[in-house]
């Protein structure tokens, strides 16, 4: 469609690429973006570099692009933002378990923590940093986020568990001595998951049920938002 003389063609193209990335189920290559946008690869490459610089999209280890945490910053005033919807349910989970509840999204090839909700009475303090990141191939949050990808024979066992049972677990993969349980969230525009992490021993059957129930609650709210 021709762009009006009163509009910026570059901005129009950039926003089109951003919309394609945001609505895609999985990260896309430059070639895939160019095909969907109807633009030349060289144009799309320049656009994604700019969007990447502004943390609106992120590149993973296979040179595919997905939404980044900068999109959440732009959405802070939207009433049905993911963090706003998730916070009450995560607070209930944190208080019920005595563990900090985390909201994590996929940013390129990493799992990025975008919300940390502390329990009213923490059982065992374990520091969590807002904005912290780790590789998608390690840790329960990463495995839960990987479950959104197309199945592969090389998938980690916990990625397969997240797909079939709705949760994944890990021990010592991100923080030495720390275990995590995570569950993917359905219904959001980019892969997202919630998690709790702990030191020592916990009943994984009980804890995973609590995490999965919370994820289901948030997913239902996202679907109706």
From TrEMBL:
Q: Which PROSITE patterns match?
A: HTH_ICLR, ICLR_ED
Keyword line: DNA-binding, Transcription, Transcription regulation
Supply the name of the protein: Putative IclR family transcriptional regulator
Q: Where is the HTH iclR-type domain?
A: 8-67
One of the entry's Gene Ontology molecular-function terms is: DNA binding
Looking at the keywords, is Transcription present?
yes
Q: Organism's domain of life?
A: Bacteria
Residue span, IclR-ED domain: 70-224
What are the BP-aspect GO terms?
A: negative regulation of DNA-templated transcription
Q: Which SMART domains match?
A: HTH_ICLR
Lineage of source species: Bacteria, Bacillati, Actinomycetota, Actinomycetes, Micrococcales
Per the UniProt record, the source organism is Kineosphaera limosa NBRC 100340
Q: Which Pfam families match?
A: HTH_IclR
């Amino acid at each position: 469609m021709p762009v009006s003389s009163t509009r910026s063609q570059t901005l129009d193209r950039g926003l089109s690429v951003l919309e394609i990335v945001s609505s895609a189920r999985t990260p896309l290559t430059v070639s895939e973006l160019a095909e969907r946008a109807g633009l030349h690869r060289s144009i799309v490459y320049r656009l994604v570099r700019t969007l990447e610089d502004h943390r609106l999209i992120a590149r993973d280890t296979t040179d595919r692009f997905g939404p980044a945490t900068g999109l959440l910053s732009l959405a802070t005033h939207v009433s049905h933002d993911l963090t706003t919807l998730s916070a009450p349910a995560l607070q209930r989970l944190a208080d019920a378990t005595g563990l900090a509840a985390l909201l994590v999204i996929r940013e390129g090839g990493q799992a990025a923590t975008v919300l940390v909700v502390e329990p009213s009475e923490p059982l065992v303090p374990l520091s969590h940093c807002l904005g912290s990141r780790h590789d998608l191939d390690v840790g329960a949050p990463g495995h839960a986020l990987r479950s959104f990808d197309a199945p592969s024979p090389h998938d980690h066992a916990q990625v397969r568990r997240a797909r079939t049972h709705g949760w994944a677990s890990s021990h010592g993969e991100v923080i030495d001595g720390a275990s995590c349980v995570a569950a993917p969230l359905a219904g959001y525009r980019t892969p997202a998951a919630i998690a709790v992490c702990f030191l020592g021993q916990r009943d994984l059957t009980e804890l995973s049920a609590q995490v999965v129930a919370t994820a289901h609650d948030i997913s239902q709210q996202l679907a109706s938002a």
